[in-house]
């Protein structure tokens, strides 16, 4: 390697460490014993390890409600995203589909022109979905860009396999579930993570559609903890003012719990990204 390569690697290593420092700091403070925590001090190693902040937030009824809401929205929303996106994309790959070009043009149209916040809110309100989990799920059912990528991916699959399955007696549903989906597992895995991350991190839609604090998602609760200005309001957000702990340790413990599931799942699905997404992006 040349000197230029060594300099590049050192710069990349230094930049990577700079990106990791905030994560280490958040984890360190969240694991610091509240009795020895000193505000406005930077440390990457807790002076004294403790799980009191995690015990506190996990014991809060408000936090458990937010965790349940987020898990429910993520699981149901991701499953429905996969079903609707892949079935619609599969149908659009068929040239014999009536008005196929018109439907595809309508999908592309939504990429350029979006209705906006107010029409979406009025639509959700007219459907009677305000203050409901389904307001978050239905409003993010199909993403046009993801649909186009999945459609392009499915078009790369050999048509001869479908023809052979139909000769053996499979109908369209049989072909889809027995041939198309097994061959599309890389794309399914990649988009499962995309959809799950979108639902897990949902914030703005939850902010405008959910008025009941008992139905708040984790992101709304974490926002409430971070934006509150004093320790009393932090305790109040969690619904327990009897036990007073440093607000910073509680906030960062909540941040860690909110981001941990995605960090755990991501490494298992990362290997599917290149194959699952790039194959769908090279054929229109």
TrEMBL record:
The segment(s) forming the ABC transmembrane type-1 domain are: 67-269
Keywords, in A-Z order: Cell membrane, Membrane, Transmembrane, Transmembrane helix, Transport
Query: Where is the protein situated, by its record's location annotation?
Result: Cell membrane
From the record, give the transmembrane residue ranges: 7-27, 66-90, 102-123, 135-154, 175-197, 250-269
How this chain sits in the membrane, per its record, is: Multi-pass membrane protein
Give the highest taxon in the source lineage. Answer: Bacteria
Q: According to its UniProt record, where is this protein mainly located?
A: membrane
GO cellular component terms, semicolon-separated = plasma membrane
Q: Name one GO biological process term.
A: transmembrane transport
Question: Looking at the Swiss-Prot or TrEMBL record, what is one Pfam family this protein matches?
Answer: BPD_transp_1
Hey, which family's this protein in? Belongs to the binding-protein-dependent transport system permease family.
Q: What is this protein called?
A: Carbohydrate ABC transporter permease
Species annotation: Paenibacillus cremeus
């Amino acid at each position: 390697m040349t000197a230029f390569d060594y300099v590049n690697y050192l710069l990349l290593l230094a930049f990577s460490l700079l990106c990791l420092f905030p994560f280490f700091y958040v984890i360190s403070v969240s694991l610091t014993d509240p009795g020895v925590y000193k505000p406005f001090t930077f440390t990457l190693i807790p002076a004294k390890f403790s799980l009191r902040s995690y015990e506190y937030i996990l014991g809060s009824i408000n936090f458990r409600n937010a965790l349940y809401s987020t898990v429910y929205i993520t699981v149901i929303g991701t499953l429905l995203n996969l079903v609707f996106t892949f079935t619609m994309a599969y149908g659009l790959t068929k040239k014999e589909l009536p008005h196929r070009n018109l439907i595809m043009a309508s999908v592309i149209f939504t990429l350029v022109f979006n209705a906006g916040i107010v029409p979406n809110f009025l639509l959700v309100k007219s459907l009677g979905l305000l203050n409901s989990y389904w307001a978050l799920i239905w409003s993010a059912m199909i993403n046009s860009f993801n649909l186009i990528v999945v459609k392009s991916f499915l078009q790369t699959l050999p048509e001869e396999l479908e023809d052979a399955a139909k000769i053996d007696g499979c109908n369209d549903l049989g072909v889809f579930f027995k041939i198309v989906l097994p061959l599309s597992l890389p794309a399914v895995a990649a988009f499962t993570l995309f959809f799950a991350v979108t639902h897990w991190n949902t914030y703005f839609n939850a902010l405008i559609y959910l008025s009941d604090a008992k139905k708040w998602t984790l992101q709304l609760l974490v926002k409430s903890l971070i934006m509150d200005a004093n320790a009393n309001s932090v305790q109040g957000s969690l619904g327990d003012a009897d036990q007073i702990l440093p607000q910073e340790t509680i906030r960062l413990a909540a941040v860690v719990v909110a981001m941990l599931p995605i960090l755990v799942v991501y490494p298992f699905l990362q290997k599917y990204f290149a194959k699952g997404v790039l194959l769908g992006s090279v054929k229109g």
